[in-house]
């Protein structure tokens, strides 16, 4: 179940799942949920900054789908629909709970890091973790819209048309955003480049 059957792509499988969900298949709903839950939680987290709230947002989206599964009709890929629905709900949740979000961010920053597991401290791991931390900080410095576009493309691996659908912009707009992001990240990460 974890791998795509030969001859079928993810969109075809998802389209079949949507069709089966509309007819009431809880197995198809469970399969769609398991296929996207972790990715959607990670995506929601970029808006709400709380792992617990991110999970609530994603669970709310799936609960709403199941509550109206018999009339669920989408005009984009299931993946683009899910990311768009999570984005919309996460933005609403963030607007409703700004103070709570700030409190969760403060608590998350106070938690001890676990990037280097027990007993692991080789120089390469330390260096890799430092580079990853620099990249994360550089991405956090981007404007929100650019940061979300970058995450959808490079972390979630959505296509340009899917990103355009999620963000409500044109494909050309996605290209422009990613071009600006790449340029900005090069500037922010320049100090990490080895000197020749």
Describe this structure in a few short sentences.
With 196 residues, the protein is an all-alpha fold. It has helices spanning 10-22, 26-48, 51-67, 78-96, 98-110, 123-140, 144-155, 160-167, 171-189.
Describe it for me?
With 196 residues, the protein is an all-alpha fold. It has 2 domains: 110 residues, Rna Polymerase Sigma Factor, Chain: A (Orthogonal Bundle); 70 residues, Arc Repressor Mutant, subunit A. Helix content is 72%, strand content 0%. The longest helix has 23 residues.
| Strand content bin | under 5%
CATH topology of the largest domain: Rna Polymerase Sigma Factor, Chain: A
Looking at the structure, what is the overall shape?
globular
Helix count equals: 9
The Cα radius of gyration reads: 19 Å
The CATH C-level name of the largest domain is: Mainly Alpha
Spell out the CATH superfamily of the largest domain. RNA polymerase sigma factor, region 2, helix turn helix motif
Overall pLDDT score: 80
